[in-house]
Design a protein that fits this description.
Layout (H helix, E strand, L loop, with lengths): L1 E4 L7 H17 L2 E4 L6 H9 L2 E4 L10 E4 L6 H10 L1 E4 L3 H15 L3 E5 L5 H8 L6 E3 L11 E8 L5 H11 L3 E6 L5 H14 L4 E5 L5 H13 L3 E4 L15 E6 L5 H15 L2 E4 L2
Parallel strand pairs: 1-12, 1-13, 2-3, 2-4, 4-5, 6-7, 6-8, 8-9, 10-11, 10-12
Helix pairs in contact: 4-5, 7-8
The structure holds iron/sulfur cluster.
């Protein structure tokens, strides 16, 4: 049996950066709070909690004057202002998300209707909507775009973790109802590379595993992209879930992981497969 671990598996640049910022703040200030979970991974959030990096779900959960970290997804300017009034704020918003926020606010200021390809309940999109004063139109399905009425001028951005092929379809459909369309390529390079390598591996193996939190939006998209290529693809959160899958008779197993999956969880999955089958793990670089 051979095991192929995709390039760019696990933590992306933005998540690594946010974790580093949080750890440095913890060193300097003692217990710190993140506004929302720093990453969508239960196991890692628990680890951070033990180190004094606590996740707060709302402003009310944070003691007055505390140090608060804005996570990589970013937040709306209105929320940021509220936080800055009561706490010492450290901004760990990913630079790619910052770029989307800038494009959104520029479009709306210029009087252009903004269409956002993404999930309206995802924190990144909720934050970006704040930069449009709520005027951004969020659509998650490329086919839904065809229902929009004709508009002479629009701009479009994508959630940073969407699949590039889906975004191309989204933009293509938008052209059917828009005369002048400004397209911003806002899918981050980390996602593009992650999807590219995962799809490549999915096309060459008998079983594909996508590791990541069940609520992690980017992991679910990665799973969907792999499943389209290899129907024998499973989304698992930890090595324990391997017990629910028939993998022992597979010759070639591919592994990838969402942007919020820590290395130790990927290693546990690889180790469990190796122990079970004496496999030869290969890391694709
Ligand atoms: S997925 Fe991309 S945009 Fe999102 S935090 Fe990671 S690097 Fe930044």
């Amino acid at each position: 049996m051979e095991i192929f671990v995709a390039k760019e598996s696990g933590f992306c640049f933005g998540v690594r950066r946010a974790v580093k910022i949080a750890c440095e703040a913890r060193e300097k200030w003692g217990t710190v709070y993140t506004y929302g979970e720093l990453i969508h991974n239960k196991q890692y959030v628990e680890k951070l909690e033990q180190q004094g990096i606590r996740a707060a779900e709302s402003i009310e959960d944070i003691p007055e004057g505390a140090v608060v970290i804005i996570r990589s997804h970013g937040i709306s300017p209105q929320e940021e202002e509220k936080l800055r009034r009561r706490f010492k704020v450290i901004d760990a918003t990913c630079p790619y998300v910052k770029k989307s926020q800038k494009f959104a606010s520029r479009s709306v200021r210029g009087g252009t209707e903004l269409v956002i390809f993404g999930d309206r309940y995802h924190p990144e999109i909720r934050g970006i909507l704040g930069y449009t004063q709520g005027s951004g139109i969020v659509i998650s399905d490329p086919e839904e775009v065809l229902k929009l009425s004709y508009t002479p001028k629009r701009a479009v951005i994508s959630q940073t973790t969407n699949d590039l092929e889906d975004y191309k379809r989204f933009v293509g459909n938008l052209l059917e109802t828009t005369e002048k369309l400004t397209v911003y390529q806002t899918i981050c390079s980390s996602t593009i590379e992650k999807h590219r390598s995962a799809k490549d591996i999915a096309s060459r193996v008998d079983l594909m595993l996508v590791i990541g939190g069940k609520h992690s939006s980017n992991t679910r998209k990665l799973f969907k992209a792999c499943k389209n290529i290899q129907p024998n693809t499973y989304h698992i959160e930890t090595a324990k879930e391997l017990d629910l899958i028939e993998w022992e008779n597979c010759e070639r197993i591919g592994i990838t992981a969402g942007a919020s999956t820590p290395d130790f969880i990927i290693e546990e999955v690889v180790e469990k497969i190796k122990e079970g089958k004496n496999g030869r793990g290969k890391k694709e670089r």
